[in-house]
Design a protein that fits this description.
This protein is an alpha+beta fold. It contains 3 helices and 2 strands; from the N terminus they run αββαα. The mean pLDDT is 87.
């Protein structure tokens, strides 16, 4: 399955990720990278993704955000071991 986003919609996506081109400091950077389509290294696909800047003491996500991450991981069939050992282990804020 391939998703394409119209150029005019990139600004909406940037905004939802807290990314503003030209701003000195963003929480995320938008970067082009290559991924293996369906796990096949012989058919790489150029994609744009957002990468978070590392923070020394990042705030914990809330439960709603963690649940969204888990739903997405299961929807995209990420390895169950990764979901259980890494994603389900994410601490959440209590307030």
């Amino acid at each position: 399955m391939v998703y394409e986003i119209a150029e005019r919609e990139v600004g909406f996506l940037d905004k939802s990720e807290g990314y503003r081109p030209g701003r000195e400091t963003n929480s995320y950077i938008r970067k082009e990278c290559h991924v293996a389509m369906d796990g096949d290294d012989d058919s790489p696909m150029a994609v744009v993704s957002y990468f978070a800047h590392r923070e020394n003491n990042p705030p914990l996500p809330n439960q709603e955000y963690k649940d969204m991450i888990l739903r997405g991981a299961r929807f995209w069939h990420l390895p169950e071991e990764y979901i259980i050992n890494t994603l389900e282990a994410i601490e959440v804020s209590m307030g």
